[in-house]
Amino acid sequence: MKNFLLSLSLFLLVAANTTAQIFDEYFIDKTLRIDYIFSGDRSNQAVSLDQLNQLPQWAGRRHNLSQLLRKGNGQIKVIDKSNGNCIYMEAFSSLFQEWQTTPEAERVNKSFENSFLIPYPKKEIEVEILLREATGNYKSAIKHTIDPNDILIKKIGLNNLPSYTILHQGGPIDRCVNIAILAEGYTTSEMSKFREHAATACQQILAHNPFGKFKNKLNLFAIETVSLSSGVSVPRENIWKQTAFGSHFDTFYSDRYLTTTNVKDIHNSIAGIPYAHIIILANTDVYGGGGIFNSYTLTTTGHEAFKPVVVHEFGHSFAGLADEYYYENDTFSDTYPFDIEPWEPNITTLVNFDSKWKDLLQKGTPIPTNTGDSARYKTGVYEGAGYSSKSIYRPAVDCRMKTNTCKDFCPACQRAIEQLIKFYTE
Fold it and tell me: Residues 89-99: pLDDT tens digits?
């Protein structure tokens, strides 16, 4: 046993050194933030480069740099120009791609900001943005070269940092998932209330497994981003506020959908603070929120459902989990075509169920699974998910990604989150 443990320790040490060598070969400990403009309509999409920025520290993953665990609705790919090797990849979703499914996209062109963080390269790189099409394939939208010595790369985050508090420190920045919690609609005099709400959000996330199980791999910071107005905008009530990020309800004319299109403002406000994932807390008692994979979570703090909703929305933005709820007697195929397997790990159209939670099913579980058999099959294939009552399936009768009353993530969601935490940190 002693020899086994010694061998294991040596293996882990070598693996850690190998990871560090790969990172150090291509990158320095800074961040390159690339700002883009996504634009188009229902059937056309274009991506344009906006601005390049250098941030003083890299707080993202140093493991599995050229791999993806989630495919996302889009991907950013980084190639070393000198040898053609892929040296970094990340997946994402965007508000623009959601907007393309709305009726408005049939009538008008619109543009949306998007910002992506990559480790700062030592040498010239080629960056490519790929966007997922309705067929499930990924199409190149832009490919461009970046010289890390370009004098027009703006250096930001060196001065005038906002006040911030360490809510939970699980370990060093370079070995943890680093999460920034920002204030939206809190004035200077309301920052003590924000700190309380941020602490509650942190506690709620860590109270849910597997986040709690891996709390030594998570760092959470509360950043006091000040707004001129208290509260957030509610367009349907003709309420418009001057807030840090200009967020508002009624996104895509949906009452509860709270988002912001001012993505650069979000990133500029925390440029000098180590972060890879973002949670924004909105100072209002109106119910709502939103979560966009590898972009941000935005949720309200004054409503009684604040605690479950912030965890639910973080499930979207961090882990790429889909909504498991649906609308009774309604069938929607615009978001998830029934003949394509969704990329999200917790819903399926059964087109490629082998890639989902099939291995979690106990032997003999019917596919699909009748909800009346849920006591027997904790994990099954239950119809109704992804906003559709038919043809899309979820892993459990109830889950944090389905209702606010469910206490836990379902087994498939828990595994998906655990896999991602390990992917980022091991």
Answer: 999 999 999 99
